[in-house]
């Protein structure tokens, strides 16, 4: 409601501005709390993964990969990528993201090593 006097108009404007500030401050606080919760969750997840790693993984880098990454790196275990054959299967050359070269031994269940 707007009062026609000079002081009434100023008071009404200040009250409207105050309510907007309160709502804005509440939203900012909510966003900050949500951001803090997300960061805490990510930190706990990272710590949990680190606990699952073995000592040699911490020294070098985590060597756990999903099968799809390995298959993509070796181009579907393409025969031209074979760099060796052992008692239990073939060894394939592969390149993972970032250009790191890897060797992957694909175990063959047809030969039991004897």
Automatic annotation (TrEMBL):
<feature type="transmembrane region" description="Helical">
    <location>
        <begin position="20"/>
        <end position="40"/>
    </location>
</feature>
<keyword id="KW-0067">ATP-binding</keyword>
<feature type="binding site">
    <location>
        <position position="105"/>
    </location>
    <ligand>
        <name>ATP</name>
    </ligand>
</feature>
<keyword id="KW-0418">Kinase</keyword>
<keyword id="KW-0547">Nucleotide-binding</keyword>
<dbReference type="InterPro" id="IPR050528">
    <property type="entry name" value="L-type_Lectin-RKs"/>
</dbReference>
<dbReference type="GO" id="GO:0016301">
    <property type="term" value="F:kinase activity"/>
</dbReference>
<protein>
    <submittedName>
        <fullName>Protein kinase</fullName>
    </submittedName>
</protein>
<keyword id="KW-0812">Transmembrane</keyword>
<dbReference type="GO" id="GO:0005524">
    <property type="term" value="F:ATP binding"/>
</dbReference>
<dbReference type="InterPro" id="IPR017441">
    <property type="entry name" value="Protein_kinase_ATP_BS"/>
</dbReference>
<keyword id="KW-1133">Transmembrane helix</keyword>
<keyword id="KW-0472">Membrane</keyword>
<dbReference type="InterPro" id="IPR011009">
    <property type="entry name" value="Kinase-like_dom_sf"/>
</dbReference>
<keyword id="KW-0808">Transferase</keyword>
């Amino acid at each position: 409601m707007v009062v026609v006097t000079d002081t009434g108009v100023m008071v009404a404007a200040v009250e409207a501005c105050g309510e907007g500030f309160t709502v804005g401050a509440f939203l900012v606080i909510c966003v900050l709390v949500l951001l803090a919760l997300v960061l805490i969750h990510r930190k706990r997840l990272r710590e949990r993964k680190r606990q699952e790693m073995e000592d040699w993984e911490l020294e070098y880098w985590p060597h756990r990969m999903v099968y799809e990454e390995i298959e993509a790196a070796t181009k579907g275990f393409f025969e031209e990528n074979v760099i060796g054959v052992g008692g239990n299967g073939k060894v394939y050359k592969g390149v993972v993201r970032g250009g790191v070269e890897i060797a992957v031994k694909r175990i063959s269940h047809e030969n039991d090593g004897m």
